[in-house]
Every structure is written in structure tokens, then in C-alpha cells.
């Protein structure tokens, strides 16, 4: 049974590494698309940047609280 347990741990570790990578790639893609679309609309770009930045901070804070309490 120790081999199975080690395999499960390795699978779990791989999943934990894959999720942040997928998030980083998707955020990068959204950022590139947003820059392309909003290059000519600087006021809209500023508003969207502030909103998205606040959302990222809020999500990060929630994840940190979840991690520390769970």
C-alpha cells in the first residue's frame, strides 16, 4: 500500500502545480487581449485595470484566508 499512497501524493502535488499555472496563463491571455482592445480607450482601460486589480487582490486574500484556516 505505501506505493499507492506515494502515487496519490504525487498526483495531488501535480494538481496543485497545474492549477496556478493554468490561472497564470489565463490571466496573461486576458491581460494581452484587454490591452489590445483598450489601447485606444485610455479612460476605460484605467477603470478596468482598477477593477481587475481589486478583484485579484480580493481573490488572493480569500485564498490566503482559506489556506490559513483550512
Structural description of this entry:
The protein has 70 residues and is mostly helical. Helices cover 93% and strands 0% of the residues. The chain has two helices and no strands. It has helices at residues 2-38, 42-69. The longest helix has 37 residues, at 2-38. The protein is elongated. The mean pLDDT is 81.
What is the approximate shape? elongated
Major sheet: none
Mean pLDDT, all residues: 81
Strand element count? 0
SSE layout:
Elements: H1 2-38, H2 42-69
Give me some keywords for this one:
elongated, 70 residues, mainly alpha, single chain, 93% helix
Brief summary:
With 70 residues, the protein is mainly alpha-helical. It has two helices and no strands.
Amino acid at each position: 500500500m505505501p506505493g499507492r499512497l506515494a502515487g496519490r501524493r504525487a498526483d495531488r502535488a501535480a494538481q496543485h502545480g497545474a492549477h496556478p499555472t493554468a490561472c497564470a496563463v489565463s490571466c496573461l491571455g486576458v491581460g494581452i487581449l484587454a490591452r489590445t482592445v483598450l489601447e485606444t480607450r485610455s479612460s476605460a482601460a484605467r477603470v478596468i485595470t482598477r477593477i481587475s486589480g481589486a478583484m485579484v487582490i480580493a481573490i488572493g486574500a480569500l485564498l490566503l484566508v482559506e489556506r490559513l484556516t483550512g
